[in-house]
Amino acid sequence: MQEKIRYPYIDNMKFAACILVALSHFFMSVTAAEIMPYSIEYFYFIKTLYTFLVPIFFVCSGFLYQNSFKVTDFNAYKKELPKKLLDLGVPYVVFSSVTLLLKVFFENDVNTKPTAFWDTLLIHPTAPYWFLYSLFLMFLFIPCMKTKRGMVILFSLSFALKIINVLLLDANLIQDAMYSDNIFIRLVTSLFSSFSELSVWFCLGMLLRFINEEKLKRIAKPLAPALLIAGIALSYPIFIKTCFYSQKAVFLIGFMFILFTFFSALVITPEPLNRLSFKFSEYFIPVFVLHTIFSAGIRIILLKLGITSLALHILGGLVGSFVLPIAVFMICKKFTPLMFFFYPTKTIKILKGKKHE
């Protein structure tokens, strides 16, 4: 059996992005609840961060997907797609449902109000679970590429689709269709918007897998700081001055910061960070799907107790975003069937192995 190759820079990107997603969700929630004062600096940071933060996950997923080279024909597609549906669908449905139920029971205490169950699952996925929804669409429609030329063509198509999406967003056509009275139009628009918006990042990750790592490292050192400076220089007038705000500008800023992040991770890989990100990879899904549930719960409890101290809410947010999700998963590992909610196919394999012991 071929030994599985690990790419520390991909682990490090996912690790950093997951930490930032959890922290940004927490700070957005305490700002919405008026525990932390709103400021123009906060607005700039969040807006800039979200031009590239979630797309990083798709870049990493596309890179690892192409690296696995599993889906190259229809037979492989039929074999792998049910696994992806199970691995992404179970946590998506379970934790979206839990979040929706909590919003229903605590409607007066949450920042975003609940929507209808099917609308939440199929048309307006709630944060952060829409990532799983959109990622499945990538596996549903995108095969692994056998040649670099084929990959360049696929990336070009995804880039063109992204441009169409951007133009439709700037014309407010997608936004209008998403709230149409016709449920079929809403569903088709949701699927198109999710795929066209994010497939370019997934395909970018796949394309990067075709490029020689040493060549990438050689261009990474001079390009990374240049991309950072250019991204900051462009994002300031877009988000602070709002002089040239458009989805086209947001896309360009995101592209700069994503390449900066990838190049930086490629050349800056200290061994302590590599070990930490590798260890954290096991907790990625638990933290991702549970951080909003626990941090929101702690925030609600503190407010019910009349506690509005930002320091205490930050402490509670850290516990809810990281400590509790990791603790829950460690307990689930002791009771293997419970792992199914996080890693379905892995859990089935473990249970089958125990059965045959």
Residue-averaged pLDDT? 90
Q: Roughly how many Å is the radius of gyration?
A: 21 Å
Coarse structural class? mainly alpha
Low-confidence stretches: none
Order of helices and strands: HHHHHHHHHHHHHHH
Number of β-strand runs = 0
Strand residues, percent: under 5%
Report on the architecture of this protein:
The chain has 357 residues and is mostly helical. Helices cover 77% and strands 0% of the residues. It is built from 15 helices and no strands. α1 (8-32) packs parallel to α13 (284-304), α4 runs antiparallel to α6 and α7 (148-170) packs antiparallel against α9 (183-210). The longest helix is centred in the first third of the chain and has 32 residues, at 74-105. It is globular, with a radius of gyration of 21 Å. The two termini are 22 Å apart.
Secondary structure elements and their pairing?
Elements: H1 8-32, H2 40-49, H3 53-68, H4 74-105, H5 117-123, H6 130-141, H7 148-170, H8 173-178, H9 183-210, H10 213-239, H11 247-267, H12 271-280, H13 284-304, H14 310-334, H15 344-355
Helix pairs in contact: 1-3, 1-11, 1-12, 1-13, 1-14, 2-10, 3-9, 3-11, 4-6, 7-9, 10-11, 13-14
